[in-house]
Amino acid sequence: MKLHVLRSTSTDPHDRGREIGTRHADRVRDVSARYLAHFKILGVPETIVRDIAAHSHEALRAWHPGLAEESDGIAEASGIEPWQVAAVGARTEVLAAAPAPGKGECTTAVYAPPAGGPPETIQTWDWHDSLTPDGLLLSLVTGTRRRVKLFTEFGTAAKIGVNDAGLGLHFNILRHRSDHAGGGVPVHAVARRVLEEATTVAEARDIIASAKVSASTVLTVATYRDGRAAAASIEMSPSGFAVVQPDTDGWLVHTNHFLDAGLADGDAGTPETVSLERYEHTRAVRGGMTGHSAPERAAAFCGGDGAAAVVCVHADASQPGHEQWGTLLTASLDLPGFALEYRAGNPDTAAREGLDQF
Question: In this model, does residue 315 exceed pLDDT 90?
């Protein structure tokens, strides 16, 4: 995956969308076409995709109109119909309508030192490289002058990021029996609004609770202020949300299954062994990640001795494109430095080559 940097100069959402669409029109059109083809392969016909995109866009406009305006601006400037960008923005909502879940996606680990100090975080983003040959690193300033830096796909609102209030966010997909094709507020837009507005875990929780969603996700939020870190994984589904706190040692690990006992009863996500294996591996190596730099955390994250395949996923080229999964991005959050640390590819690559800062 090739990463492209855009430092937006506009505080107006529609103008920002036009800026993205003008600068990256070819990539916006390309990603939209790839996702529409992917949805068809998964058994979601275009009529249903358009319906979900329309309802999600309406829900977004009612809940946070600026992000709907940004999406429309992207479509306008890139020369495609608004629903085509909205469908990418609601790609998780469309996937919730697919007959079968995927194999898994992301592994997130956050350490909030109980004795004080900034949080230490790391995440892998596993996805289809055939869908995302390009990714966006976006820097923006909101109308209230909040500064945000984030990584996302072209057409989605946000995935991983930080703001200048000392808050950062990681993103993992989940799947629940209450997920439906009705088209709720896009979960990627929920992540974006948290980055734009929240300064504490409690504020992030309230924003998430206010969104009526049709698909499930967990947002792991970390904050750093007055020399102390805080963190929580906020699991959301159409049936409700739950807040998962760090363990007593300060570590919080999340993969692609629900941890809250109530929501876990309706878990319909990735094959249990796949997500559990990554979860247990990460918990087992967390001691080796504590108190280290991002590249050192990445090295410990993989675990070595063949364990790298658990969280450092390499796509199987013998499989069809829609069946190929790989770790496309390794990311860490530097909250004191207001920076997103990243490396395209696996944590083992990040350990060898280091992480860039955005």
Answer: no
Q: What is the rounded CA–CA span in Å between residue 205 and residue 232?
A: 9
Q: Residue 122 pairs with which residues in a beta bridge?
A: 109
| pTM of the predicted model over 0.90 | yes
User: How many CA atoms are closer than 13 Å to the CA of 115, on its beta-carbon side?
Assistant: 2
Q: Rounded to a whole number, what is the largest CA-CA distance in the chain?
A: 54
Pairwise CA distance, residues 1 & 19, whole Å: 22
Which residues have C-beta within 8 Å of that of residue 107, sequence separation ≥ 6? 123, 124, 126, 172, 253, 254, 255, 278, 279, 282, 301, 311
In the predicted structure, residue 282 carries a pLDDT above the cut 80:
yes
How far apart are the C-alpha atoms of 212 and 203, rounded to whole Å? Answer: 17
Distance CA 330, CA 123 (A): 6
Tokens standing for residue 218: 């967990």
Q: Is the dihedral of CA 36, 68, 159, 232 positive or negative?
A: negative
Question: What's 79-141 look like in SS3?
Answer: CCCHHHHHHHHCHHHHHCCCCCCCCCCEEEEEECCCCCCCCEEEEEEEECCCCCCEEEEEEEE
For the chain, how many residues are written?
358
Most confidently modeled range among 5-19, 100-114, 259-273: 5-19
Instruction: Give helix then strand counts, H and E, for the chain.
Output: 13, 14
